[in-house]
Design a protein that fits this description.
Elements: E1 3-10, H1 13-20, H2 29-37, E2 39-46, E3 63-66, E4 71-77, H3 78-85, E5 96-97, E6 102-103, E7 112-113, H4 115-119, E8 126-133
Antiparallel strand pairs: 1-2, 1-8, 2-7, 3-4, 4-8, 5-6
Length: 135
C-alpha cells in the first residue's frame, strides 16, 4: 500500500454548485482559486493507514460515499479533523526518494493547513474529506 492523499474542504453550496457544473479540466484560474479558497488542509500518507476517519463511522458522526475504487468522500465535523491533526502522523512505509526530499520510516508527515480559514470555522461545522487511495 502506498497510502492516501487527503484534501479537506469547507462546504459552500454556491461555490460547490458552480465548480461541480464544470469538468475540473476546464476550470479557469478563477475556478481554481475558488476551490483553493475552501481548502482547510491537505496531506499525503505513505504506508500509513490509521483507519481515519473510518474509526468514527460507528459513532454516527461521519458519513462516507465511495465514489469509485480509489476515491472516498467523508463528511465529518471539524472537531474530528482538528483532533486528528493534533496528533503526530508518521511515515510508516519504505524510504521514498523524490527530487526534493528523502522520507524515511518514522519521519513526520506535515499537513498543509489553512489556519486562518480553520480559525473562522465552528467546531461542529461539517466538512468534506476527499481521500484518494494511492495504491
Amino acid at each position: 500500500m502506498l497510502g492516501y492523499s487527503y484534501t479537506v474542504k469547507k462546504l459552500d453550496t454556491a461555490i460547490n454548485e458552480r465548480l461541480g457544473s464544470i469538468p475540473s479540466g476546464l476550470w479557469t484560474e478563477e475556478d481554481k482559486e475558488l476551490s483553493r479558497s475552501l481548502t482547510l488542509a491537505n496531506w499525503d500518507t505513505a504506508g500509513y493507514n490509521p483507519r481515519w476517519p473510518e474509526q468514527h463511522l460507528d459513532e454516527n458522526t461521519v458519513t462516507v460515499e465511495h465514489e469509485n475504487i480509489l476515491k472516498s468522500v467523508f463528511r465529518l465535523p471539524i472537531r474530528l479533523l482538528v483532533q486528528h491533526l493534533s496528533h503526530d502522523i508518521k511515515h510508516d512505509g519504505p524510504t521514498i526518494l523524490s527530487e526534493t526530499s528523502i522520507t524515511e520510516r518514522g519521519d513526520l508527515i506535515r499537513p498543509r493547513i489553512n489556519h486562518e480559514l480553520l480559525a473562522r470555522c465552528d467546531l461542529d461545522e461539517i466538512v468534506e474529506v476527499e481521500r484518494w487511495d494511492m495504491s
